[in-house]
Design goal:
200 residues; mainly beta; 18-stranded antiparallel sheet; 60% strand; elongated; disordered N terminus
Length: 200
């Protein structure tokens, strides 16, 4: 009976100390680049620090620079970046440390600049670039992080000014240019590409 009670007591102590060891510890650091506040879990004899919970950084002027949540050392959810004046520059979605879904970029005036799609940390799908007035000026496509398919450029009026075909990151196929300098009906120029080189 005494042996059983002692075993239970030892198991309880081990459990309590184990829980205490995995409780996140809040840390703060100040550098010439600003201040950082984050939580870590310390594990093993090597005292390995694993990020857990909210990670926040500030510029020297006190403006928030970045914010993201970590789960078991991996980014999870939305990561945000701002400039030193508080303008949001980037928003990225994470799932278990991998970029997933749309990543959005803004310029220093808060205007939409670019939208990029990710799947398992690689670009997948369209990447769209905008001018300062919000008009789409370029659209391109990626598969497994490599440019493939059609890249299209537009002028400020939304007219197509070029169209290029890509295969495995290199121009391959037809590239067409549309010149509107003579009026609304464009002059068309066509170039053929083979694996990144102009066809003979």
């Amino acid at each position: 009976m005494q042996f059983t009670m002692l075993s239970i007591l030892l198991a309880l102590i081990t459990f309590l100390f184990g829980c205490a060891a995995t409780k996140p510890i809040m840390l703060e650091e100040s550098t010439s680049d600003g201040q950082v506040r984050y939580s870590v879990i310390v594990k093993g004899k090597e005292k390995l620090k694993i990020n857990e919970g909210l990670y926040t950084a500030w510029y020297p002027n006190g403006t928030k620079k970045t914010e993201v949540i970590y789960v078991a050392g991996l980014k999870q959810g939305t990561e945000l970046f701002w400039d030193a004046f508080g303008i949001k520059l980037r928003e990225t979605k994470y799932d278990k440390g991998l970029k997933q879904g749309k990543e959005t970029h803004w310029d220093t005036r808060g205007r939409l600049k670019r939208e990029v799609m990710f799947l398992n940390d690689l670009q997948e799908g369209p990447e769209i670039t905008y001018d300062i007035t919000g008009n789409k000026i370029k659209e391109e496509y990626y598969t497994l992080g490599v440019k493939n398919g059609t890249e299209t450029g537009y002028d400020e009026r939304g007219r197509k000014i070029y169209e290029s075909q890509y295969l495995n990151g290199k121009k391959n196929g037809t590239e067409t240019f549309y010149d509107y300098s003579s009026g609304d009906i464009p002059t068309v120029t066509v170039i053929q590409w083979i694996q990144g080189e102009v066809a003979p």
